[in-house]
Sequence to fold (331 residues):
Amino acid sequence: MSDTEGRGAGRSTGPDARGPAPGPDVETGTPAGGRDAEADPVATPHQRSQTRVIVARFRRHRPAVISLVLLIATAAFAFLGPYVWEWDHLVHREVPGNQPPSLAHPFGTTNAGHDVLGQLMRGTQQTLKVALTVSLLATAVGSVWGAVAGYLRGWPDAIMMRVVDVMLVVPLLVVVSAIGGNFRGGTTWYAVALIIAAFSWTTISRVVRGVVLSLREQEFVEAARAAGASGARIVFRHLLPNAAGPIIVAATLLIAVAILLEASMSFLGFGIQSPDISLGLMVDNARTAAFTRPWLFYPPGLIIVLICLTINFIGDGLRDALDPRQTMVRR
Fold:
């Protein structure tokens, strides 16, 4: 056998060795294989097996699984609890003031006549709404910004990333508190979320840019270019979906950052304000009663710590589950 024949015999004879097949697949050519999702919306067996592997990897990360259960329980407490509990977060004349925990009020009451359990439900709900909104908005902006910068490269990339560098050196808490101070007395949860999101997308943009820089020269992108796909289609149809793993992990961890920022803003008096409530505002209202009436101070602080810990463990689990280098799955 000649050297040429020997080399040819060692090559793969599958579709990848022959190049992209004619038709719609020429443009897509994504590394996940299979048809374009627009042509065939049903997941291929390969995609289903990938999903099962990711779920199996996540399930073997016990801290992440336990954290997910705790986070779901916390969300149920916040969003479903008000429908079954007698008291809400507002002042009620029927509620005696400054009472320790009892059967009627498991977490006690405030001087003004708030039921602390009702406040905890509402405060956790508002804090989670702020954090999830920040994560969604910042992830959307940061992903697009980073993907465009990484795909274009050259001077557009340099300008866009210098903007990111400038925003990264700005003290975030000082800026968002200063802006929130202009709304003092009437800040709503969505205003707080918009303020935080406006300055929280930069880290995700750097993550996505790095991933796109490593993807833009791969064969599936070259195939899309050869098929005449526009830059926007390549970015949104090919690059961003293939950067989904790092984006999901970064978005998850951003939830914990947003919770701490919202709590800090409310604690400083620049976040959600009365008559509404948040966990940070509850800590601020009870800071002088940490030792005399601990039932007012410690529960909201512990919920903040619990949510942030669970989010970080879930982020670690997602990072391991989405890492392509993790090939071993325990049965």
Q: What stands out?
A: The chain has one domain: 45-97+108-322. The chain has 16 helices and no strands. The domain at 45-97+108-322 is CATH 1.10.3720.10 (MetI-like fold).
